[in-house]
Amino acid sequence: MQEPIVRMHQLRFAHLIDPVLDDFSWEWPAGQHLAILGGNGCGKTTLAGLITDQLRPNRGEIHYANHLSPNEIYLVSFDQHRQLMEHDRRFDDSENRADAFDMGTTVHQAILQDKPEDTRFTELSKRLGIDHILDQGIRFISTGESRKTLLARALLSEPAALILDNPLEGLDKNAQQEMRQLMDELVASPLPLLLLVKDADDIPDALDDVQIMDAGKIIRHCSSAEAKQSQQQRPHFSKPLPIKRGDNWPADQALIELNDVSVNFRGKQVLSNINWQLLPHQHCCISGPNGAGKSTLLGLLCGENDKAWGQQVKLFGKARGSGESIWQIKEKFGLLNTSLQLNHLKRIKVIDVIASGLFDSVGLYNNYGDAQRQQLLAWLDAFDLLHEREQRFDRLSFGQQRMILLARAMVKSPPILILDEPCIGLDGEQKARLLGAVDHIAAQGDTRILFVSHRSEDIPDCINQFLELVPSEAGGYTAKIEER
């Protein structure tokens, strides 16, 4: 009988003083494919960190198969994505500039890591559908393309075993289908695979060993079919939210109006002849393939992208470039996106992260008064995170961080709330709570929702307008609008 790839005996790992794993014994049998299903904070990511020697246990033993090093077990995760972006951030002041002088690390370089290029690299790039972006900088590609880049790098390293942490999150429908096919191929291959997921529907049907994890314990073993059958719909968020009543905008006057808006980056057409308006009663879902320009479109609205200047972009009845400052634009929007979570707000206290939303700053550089503090505490209480108020933001789970960023985006009760793929990283329960909160925001206040999502099941009920970015004959992507 072959020795297990990894065997853990009576492990304890504590985050500060709270144990994530305690008296934890587990093994990964040789040559086996496993899936671990569990919500945020259950211990999946901690387990992956211990397996790959990125974390060290406080107590207990970890044994590896003969001649196997933990460096030979490759992990593909959101944290890797964050590290990849951080490593290249010294160039990010050129991210939205047409005259950017340095692309930074290219996809080609990120995959090869100084290895010589060979036929495996060429074949793998084509198989993952990233051969056309190899010369692009990693800061200029989409979340889904970044995931494929990391997976290509992992497979090219010829690992002894592979760990995928929520590999479908952030991918558009086509990319999800491609990734599912790739996971099916991995399950059929001899390369041992450990799949960490929050949603049972993300587990390949052929993967028969599913372990359910909760509160740092493996509580059940089952097949993927059994896991999918037993996954229940979670209750939606229902707590009152501390939202202030806002404007009385005329019902027939658009808050957002774009006429024949086009965007070109470094000679590449991204958006082409976008025509769109958002009326006060509307909440819009924005969708489209990875790289279609969804984030670019949002940047035009909230002042993050200067390509709106000189074009027919009207916000709240005023043309962009008519004398308003970027801060006057930003005060109208609340924003939640993956970049904010991955690249910023690391060592800041949770309550200060929310407070930064009052001032539209990344980090807190202003003082706030007692009345504002009560407002911050009310949002924390609404999201059941009041006890985390003095904790460092980067000490929270990924899902908890997302809820804090939703509170940050809403703390000033903005006229428009932009949610750029907000369900990425959330487990079923937290996703339901967030979507319920978004619906409650739409119903309770005067905030309109712009919601970016790849998954139809992740769209809140309040959405009544759909903007899909589709290929344009003129190049790039244009807008297809539907009302509901």
TrEMBL record:
ATP-binding recorded as keyword: yes
**What domain of life does the UniProt record list for this protein's source?**
Bacteria
Q: Which residues form the ABC transporter domain?
A: 6-240, 256-483
Tell me which InterPro entries the record gives. Answer: AAA+_ATPase (IPR003593), ABC_transporter-like_ATP-bd (IPR003439), ABC_transporter-like_CS (IPR017871), P-loop_NTPase (IPR027417)
GO MF, one annotated term: ATP binding
For this entry, the protein name equals ATP-binding cassette domain-containing protein
Any one Pfam family match given in the protein's UniProt record, by short name: ABC_tran
- Species whose genome carries this gene: Spongiibacter pelagi
Q: Tell me which UniProt keywords the record has, alphabetically.
A: ATP-binding, Nucleotide-binding
SUPFAM superfamilies (alphabetical): P-loop containing nucleoside triphosphate hydrolases
